[in-house]
Amino acid sequence: MATPGPARPKVSDWTKPAAMAIPEEGYFTLEQGRYGPIFPKTPACHGFSVVAKVKDGREQAVRDYGKSIEEAVKNNPSVLAPLKLHYLRWILFDVGSGLHFMYQGIFDTDFDKYLEDAVALFVKTGITTVFVNLEGWPDNWKTNLSAVIKFFREHQYPSFLEYGEYPYVTADEVKKALKLQAAFADMLDLMQ
Amino acid sequence: MAILQQSLTGRNEDDALEVEDIQHFLMSRPAARAARYEFLTFRSAACGRAWLMGLIDKVGTAKAVGSNLVDSRWVTIGFTWNGLQALGVDEVSLATFPEEFRQGMAARAEILGTTGANHPDHWVGSLARPELHAIAILFARDVAERERCRKEHERYLAQCTGVELLSCLDLEALPPFDYAHEHFGDRDRLSQPAIEGTGVQPTPGSGPPIKPGEFFLGYPDEDGPAAGMPQPGILSRNGSYVAYLMMKEHVGAFRDFLREHGGTPEQQELIAAKLMGRWRSGAPLVLTPDKDDPSLGADLQRNNAFTYADMDPHGYACPLGAHIRRMNPRDTAVNMNRRKMIRRGGTYGPPLPEGAPEDGIERGIAAFVGCASLVRQFEFAMNVWANDPNFHELGNERDPIFGTQDGTFDMTIPKRPIRKKIRGLPAFTTIRGGAYFFLPSIRALRYLASLSGDH
Questions:
Q1: Where would a tag sit more exposed on chain B, N or C end, judged by fewer CB atoms within 10 A?
Q2: Long-range contacts made by residues B203-211, C-beta under 8 angstroms, separation at least 24?
Q3: Which residues of B have a CB under 8 Å from any CB of A?
Q4: What pLDDT sits at residue B303?
Q5: What is the pLDDT of residues B368-398, one digit of tens each?
Q6: Interface test with A, best of B384, B406, B410, B423 (most A CBs within 10 A)
Q7: Nearest-CA distance from B326 to chain A in Å?
Q8: Per-residue pLDDT reduced to its tens digit, B260-317
Q9: How many CA atoms within 13 Å lie on the side-chain side of A25?
Q10: B225 to chain A: which residues are within 8 Å by CB?
């Protein structure tokens, strides 16, 4: 077990960039969530990096999902809202051990807390079906939520360093600040 | 009865609720003003089975209770995972039950957030111990009937060598009896899901009827056909899980807090309402933010007919962290149909008279949450809605009534121009015990009683 690490300050200071080195386990102290250990919030918020090997001959099928997610968000910009995301990055790479897919997400909620909601959303938007192209994905994913959850947990590689230029700030807070800025600009316009 | 019969016709035979096989507990709410919960242990499989065999005929089915054939006392029986093992269920079958049920509630304390004063180390009644095997729940028309049944079961237990009472709890409804309420004075039972196929219509604002598989094993749920049921099917089908919680209410501390934060009785009522999300009459703050409206509170057609995202997005009426907004976020959360639960239970201990100082007497709520998946439904509600400090990005809050409070969390009450923030909220409740039980069907009770061998 790793030694206790820096506790998240109760009042975080977004003006002060912060980095956090994370032990190999992905957490400082073991805190049990419903489906396994909880990973800490870092200056770069919550997130995951799920890496899995692509089945032979499925590269194009995976790439095509990029287009379908683009369409889904275009048709309904709030379709991914329940995930409380900042960013998603989907990457295909082969560094000599075959083609791998990396699904990296940065978000504001603890993934463990909303796992069922996330999986339901993946099913709804078709994200889940990209996973059928990956090795280790359970065949009975449609009816076996616990197998899906197990896949995510087994293929999640925790960071050992995370950094935030404006640490711990949530996407909602960023959007509120930008809204406030816009409202303030409007107000100044009205006062001309 | 007409309602239940209607459900049995006109639906796919496979999906029709088998009301003659399902225990009534989650399906019907009998007109009970008294109750008794008995927590039992089996010293051997044979004596546990013998005890069970003699009681099966007393268990109220959904059909009998729904048709008022049972009208003075209502019996329900449930087992912990250890209890199923103690009855002689084989290891292969035991392993097919979900992990959270196998572990039991006490082992899941960290996940549930029942830490500090709420931790199983402090629980009463042997509820955190592995010897807890079974619960017999008795609901009775009145205290006299409860006492008659208590004595009857006492006599029966005396004949069942090897079945012992670990602890028990007597419950009585609080006067006045014209509406259900708890010790803080809040009207209860306002938001209950309706089960598809029972013919019961949800009240306005309660959402559509919920698929029976969200509460009873073996039926389609909101995600599709039943899957991954514990084996054998005869043991799991028509069964449900219930999470039991005994929660002490610190009525004196609650009233002191209101006096401290409200100068006038009106202000005190408003603070109480802000913590709850409803006035004590049951009238929701979203519909009547500034003053109570008891006629609205009592009107089932109106008192649940509201949303948050559209009607109160910033929480100016009902704070984002208020009890009812956490425990049922309505349109501000997703997949709500997969998080529904059926609550049953009652109050224990005498009421603390208005104006009286705290008398130290144990009083509170002892309730059951029924569902088909403890981890997805009950544990989610505890882990996220009750105890996630960052729920709705509140940062440092837990459910002000029901969450684990230790004086380090806050409560934000949105208000123009500047919000009111109460720092260091005290605990108004303490979890005194809890357990996970499986409520088998009548057929499954017979199956269990007819097992052979020891574990």
A1: N
A2: B203/B300, B203/B301, B203/B303, B203/B304, B203/B305, B204/B301, B204/B302, B204/B304, B204/B305, B205/B304, B205/B305, B205/B306, B205/B307, B205/B330, B206/B304, B207/B336, B207/B337, B207/B340, B208/B337, B210/B337, B210/B340, B211/B337
A3: 100, 108, 110-111, 223-225, 227-228, 334-335, 338, 375-376, 379-380, 383-384, 388, 390, 393, 395-396
A4: 96
A5: 999 999 999 999 999 999 999 999 989 899 9
A6: B384
A7: 14
A8: 999 999 999 999 999 999 999 999 999 999 999 999 999 999 999 999 999 999 999 9
A9: 15
A10: 143
User: How far apart, in Å, are the Cα atoms of A84 and each of A28, A46, B332?
Assistant: 24, 10, 13
Residue ranges of chain B whose pLDDT lies below 50: 1-13
* Structural domains of chain A, with CATH: 18-190 (3.30.70.1090)
Token code pair at residue B136:
């017999």
CB contact under 8 A, B388 and A82: no
Alpha-carbon span B426 to B411, nearest angstrom = 10
Alpha helix ranges (H) inside B14-59: 45-55
Q: What gap in Å lies between CA B78 and CA B440, rounded to an integer?
A: 7
Whole-angstrom Cα distance, residue B224 to residue A149?
A: 18
Contact B227 A113 (CB under 8 A): no
Residue with tokens 């929660």: B247
